[in-house]
Write a structure and sequence with these properties.
Layout (H helix, E strand, L loop, with lengths): L1 E2 L11 E6 L6 E8 L3 E5 L7 E6 L3 E6 L4 E7 L5 E6 L3 E6 L3 E6 L4 E7 L4 E6 L3 E6 L25 E6 L34 H9 L1
Antiparallel strand pairs: 1-2, 2-3, 4-5, 5-6, 6-7, 8-9, 9-10, 10-11, 12-13, 13-14
Length: 209
């Protein structure tokens, strides 16, 4: 859970995240030291001992629960981070401005992004598929007049669920989006063609064999 700081001049070191053991009911770890509120936390979907979180201070952070230290910090979304998920080498984040970003954790490099009108409220991905949900802040939109509640005429108030399949265009050579296709022979440090399901450890082992 995210815990707000209190007291004069934030004497306790800023806002934090406290992790509790369900088996013992006791505090297992405390991480973070931020002036902003923690808005989203993902511990279930990531690697063991790594916690991914987002903050109102616009940053996505990854903490190692064994040491309590931050292992990654990305300046991600100018209206605050609203959804996060990570795995061994990449992060996917969503923001209040409607932007979804895929990041390479070790290089802190953005690999891909997509924008929709409403804030990102949900993110889920696997090796080749990304699902996002953008939900508007306004839950009861009105029509042209105060008595008009016909939502069919006002699509701008509706949320959007998007499914991105990064294996779909793997054979299209001139598409900027196929980040699943790469042979890693390019010397460029910034490359869109980085696979969602290819950790660097496996690639390094393959290149030296």
């Amino acid at each position: 859970m995210g815990v707000k700081s209190c007291g004069w001049a934030m004497n306790d070191g800023g806002n934090k995240i406290q992790v509790y053991s369900l088996e013992t009911g006791k505090l297992a770890a405390t991480v973070g030291n931020s002036a902003g509120d923690f808005t989203c936390i993902n511990l279930r979907d990531g690697p063991p001992n790594l916690l991914v979180c987002g903050n109102k201070d616009r940053r996505v952070r990854v903490f190692d629960l064994r040491s309590g230290l931050s292992v990654a910090s990305l300046y991600a979304h100018h209206l605050g981070v609203t959804a996060v998920q990570g795995d061994e080498w990449k992060l996917v984040s969503g923001g209040g401005e409607g932007l979804v970003c895929v990041w390479e954790m070790r290089m802190a490099a953005k690999l891909w992004e997509m924008h929709n009108r409403h804030p990102v409220r949900h993110i889920w991905f696997d090796a080749s598929t990304l699902v996002t949900a953008n939900i508007p802040d306004e839950k009861s939109p009105r029509g042209a007049c105060i008595t008009d509640d016909d939502l069919t005429a006002h699509r701008r108030h509706r949320g959007v669920i998007s499914l991105y399949d990064f294996s779909e265009d793997a054979t299209v050579q001139d598409n900027v989006l196929p980040i699943c296709r790469s042979n890693y022979v390019e010397e460029s440090g910034y490359n869109y063609n980085i696979g969602l399901s290819m950790p660097y450890d496996a690639l390094s082992h393959r290149s030296t064999s």
